[in-house]
Design brief:
The structure is a single chain. The protein starts with 14 loop residues before the first helix and ends with a helix. The chain contains 15 helices and 15 strands. The longest helix has 23 residues, at 177-199. By secondary structure, the protein is α/β, with parallel strands linked by helices. It has helices spanning 15-28, 50-59, 69-72, 78-82, 103-113, 133-139, 152-158, 177-199, 218-229, 258-264, 279-283, 297-301, 303-308, 354-370, 384-399, and strands at 38-43, 62-67, 88-90, 120-124, 144-149, 166-169, 211-214, 235-238, 254-255, 267-270, 289-293, 313-317, 321-325, 331-335, 378-381. The model has no long low-confidence stretch (mean pLDDT 91).
Length: 402
């Protein structure tokens, strides 16, 4: 069956997009949403987002698409295609990641796109609404049916917030693991490409680059595995939780503190989602440093604060690299401008693992909006039963599992 929806923007073939679209339709088929429901959806501005958005717009009365700034800046033309989706509207430019750190701006966004008394659902990605969540739930205690969050760093931003409604996290599900490893491979590949294009270096230039990885979760472990696959074995890894490091030495990886890593390495992969590098790490640096992140420089370095307090000053750059200097005139090169290293490049849809976490995010939102759930106020995860359901459906749909 072929869809009549616009599922690609620049690709010649819509084969995988069709597959993803019908898979997500299948996940949602047993749910009916309330009339006049508005969905606020924060998502990457990638071509791979189109199947997910089309299914979401079939289900909801109206979808307000809030593009993540990192990918929007490099793929703004995709919005022309997104705006052709029925029931979909792209948020006005004033409501971006920085603006939504102001709770009043979050409340204004809801007021702008809903009518009085109209129910709405927030599908968040990266904690865009975290700082305004309490203000939103106070102003719209009846209208807001709940919030879902896709990422671990996003969930961290919601912690210690007084949430009067459920927040369903799909950040730590086991079915996200394949997509995390796929992302790890992409990040290493594009880091290599940026180094080649911007500096004439490659990752396995021994004698020029010494590599460290901060964070040994799914993404950090995936990056280590991919680097080792490229023949890079002199790796340093640190983590705030020493328990996570215990499996690393058996794989030939040097474990250490972040401070020790900075003494040995000049290329750091930041894989924590939450302040991998601090002011003290960067202000005393005397050698140039390359930094690649899996989320953003805001999350991994708290870059705005580093610039504000004078630890770093901006020198210049482009979509591939942004250069900063510290007080010792050491250059800190942020690959991809500090965003995830694959951000400047178009992300494809050939690997169906991305539909696993999209299905989880969608299902969590459907449960909240249809009230077909037993969620209490506060942060909780999608159930193991729901995760098993998604995994079985995905295996059957893409790999003929029986």
């Amino acid at each position: 069956m072929t869809s009549s929806h616009t599922l690609t923007h620049s690709y010649y073939s819509a084969f995988y997009a069709e597959k993803g679209f019908h898979f997500l339709e299948q996940i949602a088929k047993d749910y009916t949403l309330p009339d006049n429901l508005v969905v606020f959806s924060v998502m990457h501005c990638y071509e791979g987002t189109l199947p997910y958005l089309n299914v979401l717009c079939q289900l909801a009365d109206h979808v307000v698409f809030i593009p993540k700034q990192a990918t929007f800046c490099n793929n703004s033309s995709l919005l022309n295609t997104i705006e052709t989706i029925e029931n979909c509207q792209t948020v006005e430019p004033g409501f971006d990641k920085i603006a939504l750190r102001d709770p009043a701006c979050c409340v204004e966004l809801i007021r702008r796109y809903t009518k009085e008394g109209q129910a709405f659902l927030i599908l968040d990605h990266g904690g865009y609404f975290a700082q305004g969540a309490e203000a939103i739930l106070e102003a719209f205690s009846k209208e807001c049916v709940g919030i879902t969050e896709l990422t671990a760093n996003g969930v961290a931003k919601y912690r210690n917030r007084h949430l009067l409604k459920p927040l369903v996290s799909v950040a730590h599900l086991s079915i996200k693991t394949p997509a995390d490893y796929e992302a790890s491979e992409c990040i290493v590949h594009y880091t290599d490409q940026i180094l080649r294009e911007a500096f004439g270096l490659k990752l396995n230039n021994q004698g020029f680059l010494s590599i460290g990885v901060i964070g040994s979760g799914n993404l950090g472990r995936g990056i280590c595995k991919t680097l080792q696959g490229k023949g890079i074995h002199d790796l340093y890894v640190s983590d705030q939780d020493p328990r996570r490091l215990t499996a690393m030495p058996r794989n030939g990886i040097q474990v250490c503190s972040t401070e020790t890593m900075l003494n040995h390495c000049n290329l750091i992969f930041c894989c924590t989602g939450n302040e991998a590098l601090h002011t003290a790490h960067l202000q005393s640096r005397r050698e140039n440093l390359f930094v690649a992140t899996v989320t953003s420089a805001d999350d991994e370095l708290n870059l705005p604060e580093l610039v504000h307090n004078g630890t770093l000053r901006y020198i210049g750059g482009n979509t591939l690299v942004k250069e900063y200097k510290n007080q010792h005139e050491a250059s800190i090169y942020l690959l991809a401008g500090g965003e995830s290293a694959n951000t400047p490049f178009k992300t494809g849809m050939g690997d169906p693992t991305l539909y696993l976490f999209e299905a989880a995010h969608l299902l969590a939102g459907l449960q909240l909006a249809s009230q077909n759930h037993s969620y209490a106020a506060g942060i909780q995860a999608l159930s193991a039963q729901d995760e098993i359901f998604i995994a079985e459906q995905w295996l059957r749909f893409f790999y003929h599992y029986s």
